[in-house]
From TrEMBL:
Belongs to the UPF0410 family. GO terms for cellular component: plasma membrane. It is a multi-pass membrane protein. InterPro entries: Transgly_assoc. It comes from the Bacteria. Pfam families: Transgly_assoc (PF04226). Keywords: Cell membrane, Membrane, Transmembrane, Transmembrane helix. This is GlsB/YeaQ/YmgE family stress response membrane protein.
Amino acid sequence: MITSLLYSAIIGIVAGWLAGKISRNHGFGVWGDLVVGIIGSFIGSFVLNLVGMHTYGLIGSIIASTLGAVILLWLIRLFTGEKTAHE
């Protein structure tokens, strides 16, 4: 049980950090990366299941979580009206 939580936390931190790098060119700090990554893992798994794809293993979990975290950040910016660096 503890190992599973630690595994999920590490994946969440990595996925949140990657999503921050992809969308903002920097991370959100350890706690912000963790929250974005964990919520992103649910979103990523849901989206991939909708299109009939499944991920396996560590790399698959990181990819799905990162995809979900990027979607989460995009939705947040969509509803808050935050400008990107390109605008």
